[in-house]
Write a structure and sequence with these properties.
mainly alpha; 77% helix; 565 residues; two-stranded antiparallel ribbon; two-stranded parallel sheet; Growth Hormone, Chain: A
Length: 565
């Protein structure tokens, strides 16, 4: 097996077409576990203190630490973009970095969800989590920049690029939803406690992630690089990440639009799970979250499957405007249906499933619960805004690659790794803002105490405090009740107006973020289909000329050498 082999032209080899896009399924599963559920695990699995005051202090410290990590992200992404762009291995420009990052990332993920330091009242875990999170962030960025930088380098053909981008996006969506489903129902359904459930999930996700990235390294090929761009890459500088986006305004508008998209799209999955707990209970709420995720994957995958066909008939800006309108109307409709504006319960509501003392729900009538009553009404706007979001995201990814082509065409420098370093920085910036928003929502709506009760009860179940008696009951601060009893008591203390405020904050922030993203992309990005066709044609002519010049120089050097000898 020749690991250093590459290919020429715009036709991507079949193994690369297969393994490259679909390997991101497990990448995004692993990223979702950390990016979306690490804080859920931290707050609700009993790894923090069972004392409310200490628990809240630890939460604030973790939140501040995660926000401070944004500073490291600001350095980490340009560092990794610079390293990938400047230093190439004999085995390729991108694949070695993809594999190295995957090895370190898999180890960091396992450590994040298995090391607890019991007996330190949660402080040992807080310290370890911050350290392991920085390690995870470093190695994932290395893998992520290598992976995404490889995408625009594989082909300049618009049709081939659209197919690859679509498959990457579909695989990423499936991976994200699969991890959402596993984490929504796993911790409350495995019967082993949330901490142990997350441990099993983390080990499995880390192994699959590593294997998928090894497949990219061993079975995928990189496209032969333009000789001039190789020389440009070797002269890259650390600050090029900021120089390129400041100079290339097309890239700047895409970077801003993408960051706002990520921020908006992460909110419902990041905070929504807790809302469903509050409305339907711990176990039933997890099932509702899974149902919503199922419609997420259905809408997203269907939309992305049809993207290549839609791209043939509609311009990028047309698709962007249409999907933005659907997203906005969908979230507004969801607000009126899924939040209790007109009574004690939302319009889209079904009576929660009965739960036993341990909090596990009776799944006998699960389908009746999920699709009976009026709960199904909430799924209608959800499938529309999820589908529209999938198309919106694909348009941004294509714009991103067009902006890289534009950079080479206008400024003579391609620098995929430097340019695509902005994508993980956008993701982590959005994740950091979501962390702040999550705590703001809990504090503003007065629902922080409910999250604390979940954490305390999971701590008791995990044996980190006092275990249950023979009747399955726990005694906390002199009060005796079952696991489910404590949770239901805390849930019943949440008033409908608190849930409405929860919805107002979440939906308004989502709509405003999407609006800002759309404005940046619609009024800022000017590389349309006609201009991109011109750019691709001229770049191919330049590359062919560069190859010809290199061959002439090589022949002249050989002839000169023969004359001397």
């Amino acid at each position: 097996m020749n690991l250093a082999r590459n290919y020429e032209g715009n036709k991507v080899p079949k193994f690369t077409r297969l393994f490259y896009p679909w390997s991101t399924l497990f990448r995004d599963m692993c990223y979702t576990l950390v990016g979306t559920f690490l804080l859920q695990y931290t707050y609700t699995s009993g790894v923090l203190s069972s004392n409310l005051a200490t628990y809240q202090t630890q939460m604030h410290i973790i939140t501040i630490a995660m926000m401070v990590c944004l500073i490291w992200d600001g350095l980490n992404d340009p560092i990794m973009g610079f390293l990938v762009e400047k230093f190439h291995f004999k085995l390729g420009k991108f694949r070695p970095w993809i594999l190295i990052g995957a090895i370190g990332n898999a180890l960091a993920v396992i450590l994040l969800f298995t090391v607890r330091f019991e007996g330190t009242d949660g402080w040992g875990y807080v310290a370890a989590m911050i350290v392991f999170y920085v390690l995870w962030d470093t190695f994932f960025t290395m893998n992520d920049i290598g992976y995404w930088s490889m995408l625009p380098s594989l082909t300049n053909d618009p049709k081939e690029r659209a197919k690859l981008t679509t498959n990457v996006s579909i695989a990423a969506s499936i991976g994200t939803v699969l991890m959402n489903v596993i984490c929504f129902i796993g911790p409350s359904s495995f019967g082993i406690g949330a901490a142990d459930a997350y441990k099993i999930i983390a080990i499995g996700a880390a192994i699959l992630f590593l294997l998928s990235q090894a497949a990219v390294f061993f079975f995928c090929q990189e496209r032969k690089r333009d000789v001039v761009q190789e020389d440009v890459s070797s002269k890259s500088h650390f600050l090029d990440l900021f120089k390129v986006v400041w100079r290339n305004k097309q890239l700047l508008y895409v970077v801003v639009g993408l960051a706002l998209y990520y921020f908006a799209s992460f909110i419902l999955t990041g905070i929504g799970q807790n809302y469903f707990y509050m409305v339907f209970g711990y176990a039933s709420g997890g099932y509702v979250a899974v149902a919503v995720s199922a419609f997420y994957i259905l809408g997203t995958v269907l939309a992305q499957v049809f993207y290549p066909m839609l791209a043939k008939h509609f311009k990028k800006q047309t698709l962007l405007t249409a999907t933005f309108g659907i997203i906005t109307l969908g979230y507004i409709a969801f607000f009126f249906l899924a939040f209790p504006l007109f009574g004690d319960h939302p319009l889209a509501y079904s009576t929660p499933l009965p739960s036993d003392a341990s909090g596990a729900a009776d799944g006998t009538n699960l389908l009746s619960f999920l699709f009976g009553g009026a709960l199904w009404l909430a799924y209608i706007p959800a499938i529309f805004f999820f589908a529209a979001s999938g198309l919106y995201y694909l348009v941004i990814l294509v714009m991103f690659q067009d902006a890289i082509d534009y950079n080479e065409w206008k400024y003579g420098e391609r620098k995929e790794s430097i340019c695509f370093a902005w994508r993980p920085l956008d993701v982590k910036l959005a994740s950091g803002l979501n962390i702040g928003l999550r705590n703001l929502v809990f504090l503003a709506t007065g629902t922080m105490s409910f999250i604390n009760v979940i954490s305390n009860m999971e701590g008791l179940k995990n044996g980190s405090a006092f275990g249950a008696d023979a009747k399955g009951e726990y005694t906390v601060d002199g009060v005796t009740n079952t696991f489910n009893g404590f949770l239901e008591q805390a849930r019943n203390e949440i008033a409908p107006k608190q849930l409405v405020l929860f919805g107002v904050i979440v939906i308004v922030v989502i709509v405003l973020a999407y609006t800002a993203s759309y404005l940046s992309l619609h009024f800022g990005f000017k590389v349309d289909e006609k201009m991109e066709e011109k750019i691709v044609k001229e770049l191919e002519e330049r590359h062919a000329l560069h190859e010809k010049e290199v061959k002439i120089e090589t022949v002249e050097e050989i002839e000169k050498s023969e004359m001397i000898s």
